[in-house]
Amino acid sequence: MYAFEYQRPDTIEAATLAAQGAEARFLAGGQSLVQAMKLRLSSAERLVDLAGVTALRGISASATEVTIGAMVRHAEVAASATVRQAIPGLAELAAGIGDAMVRNLGTLGGSLATADPAACYPAALVALGARVKTTQREIAADDFFTGLYETVLRAGELIVSVTFPIPLKAAYAKYKQPASRFAMVGVMVSQTAAGVRVAVTGARSAVFRVPELEQALSADFSAAAASSVTLPADDLNADIHCSAQYRAAMIVVMTARAVTAAQAR
Ligand SMILES: Cc1cc2nc3c(=O)[nH]c(=O)nc-3n(C[C@H](O)[C@H](O)[C@H](O)COP(=O)(O)OP(=O)(O)OC[C@H]3O[C@@H](n4cnc5c(N)ncnc54)[C@H](O)[C@@H]3O)c2cc1C
Prior knowledge:
Bound molecules: flavin-adenine dinucleotide
Helix content: 25-40%
Shape: globular
Number of strands: 14
Strand order of the largest sheet: 4-5-10-6-7
Number of helices: 12
CATH superfamily of the domain at 169-263: CO dehydrogenase flavoprotein, C-terminal domain
Distance between the termini: 47 Å
Largest sheet: 5 strands, antiparallel
Mean pLDDT: 97
Order of helices and strands: EHEHEEEHHHHHHEEHEEEEEEEHHH
CATH topology of the domain at 169-263: Enolase-like, domain 1
């Protein structure tokens, strides 16, 4: 690990100020950043630790939306009575991330800023039509992820919170890499009055929606309707874990499982 300066502000304004000037990085739970810095794959002249910024914590809900602070840890989302009641599929997604240490240190904001192609939260954001609030603007989930480990975030732009509209029904199903539990294919399905959204993670360089499945499920929200869809393997990832053709099949299988889980509520 290269040497760096460390700052621990306690307000959003101070954190934003601390991130200016030097080549600075925000530090959330360190689950991606510290590993990368230890391997010298990543470096920073200054780390701005967000642990003391209480305004980035907390979960709240209205009749129509749930808002989760950027520094809320996965274990807190999984255990939150508010999330479990409003969007149980989101709490279950968080409960299935990594292992206990990752869930107790990893954060919503850190996960989104990293934009790992196999991360779970991107599927939830896109399927639920969430909005990301930063220190500079509000960004629709559909516009947030731009590629492999890439987002529209600018240098020094801090994620403050994410607001999730409450769906009629939603659930996440993941075909996971057994060691890390990252998604080889993860599918979030969300049913609202406007129709059905299906978002897939783990199968391309970034999260994407599947119009064929959305049309089938908007007409008939059933596992059978999902299973009747055949998807092309074009543009899907192929690696040591599985082929593109297998991923195409798993997208359909995970979608059907997510629909079954959503209907059970
Ligand atoms: C073994 C292992 C297994 C995992 N399994 C899964 C899994 O199954 N599913 C899954 O979804 N994820 C998984 N993860 C990722 C995990 O969920 C973490 O959320 C992710 O690694 C980011 O970590 P962090 O929140 O501690 O952020 P950090 O590592 O502290 O930061 C990551 C990046 O985000 C930036 N950042 C942090 N907070 C903000 C903010 N508020 N605004 C702007 N930028 C910010 C940092 O500058 C840095 O660039 C796994 C990780 C590990 C190590």
